[in-house]
């Protein structure tokens, strides 16, 4: 029995007030997590500005579910673009069936990326539509959108927790793609707290199932400031396939210009 001094009509304001306080605390915590996640992303980006241009060599190893593998040799050229995403060109040197294939990417911070693929067998340039960015790049476990440079406005953020990964204390941040054409609902990213280097990324598909995990290892520092992983491993949990990237011979400030990144240079890339 309810005491006469605490009738139901008098309980509702108490219940409503308690509920509103709970909602306010939840919203405040969510806002704090969002702001912290954004700050971590901004700090990570700020530590990788000013390298101007770079060139590197890469070995791509494709492994199927049975463990059988094939290798590809690729050269990567990248140009830093002020106040926007980077420009990059990937040139395949081997094996023979893909030799001369070249991929050009213009990453953007606020608009859709622009990407083109030159296929020497057809002697033509194919534009990758924004609706097809979730497709696999040259049979690998990397999607076209994975090849875009990281730009802060491409995502919204939510700080989750601190956690050790790869032997280093890391921030764990959830990021949600702004682009409706993304093949992912979200990513969970581990970023080390000392140098703000990405250690691991989990990619969740459009049904919010875990699709892939990318781990980055063997970081090396260049120009006493910029960190690059020498090894990247993408594991597809749904297909059982893997793609490993082994990077070498990084060079910075090589004199690349904007005119080195267009469809004409893409066709001539050798």
Give the helices and strands, then pairings.
Blueprint: H1 8-46, E1 53-63, E2 69-79, E3 87-94, E4 102-106, E5 114-119, E6 124-128, E7 155-165, E8 168-177, E9 186-192, E10 198-204, E11 210-222, E12 226-236, E13 242-252, H2 263-268
Antiparallel strand pairs: 1-2, 1-13, 2-3, 3-4, 4-5, 5-6, 7-8, 8-9, 9-10, 10-11, 11-12, 12-13
Would you kindly provide a written description of the structure presented here, covering whatever features stand out?
With 270 residues, the chain is of the alpha+beta class. The chain has one domain: Lipoprotein localisation LolA/LolB/LppX (outer membrane lipoprotein receptor (LolB), chain A, Clam), CATH 2.50.20.10. Helix content is 17%, strand content 43%. The chain has two helices and 13 strands. It has helices at 8-46, 263-268; strands at residues 53-63, 69-79, 87-94, 102-106, 114-119, 124-128, 155-165, 168-177, 186-192, 198-204, 210-222, 226-236, 242-252. The chain has a 13-stranded antiparallel β-sheet with strand order 6-5-4-3-2-1-13-12-11-10-9-8-7. Strand 7 and strand 8 (168-177) form a beta hairpin. The longest helix is centred in the first third of the chain and has 39 residues, at 8-46. The protein is globular, with a radius of gyration of 23 Å. It starts with 7 loop residues before the first helix and ends with a helix. 24% of the residues are buried. The mean pLDDT is 91.
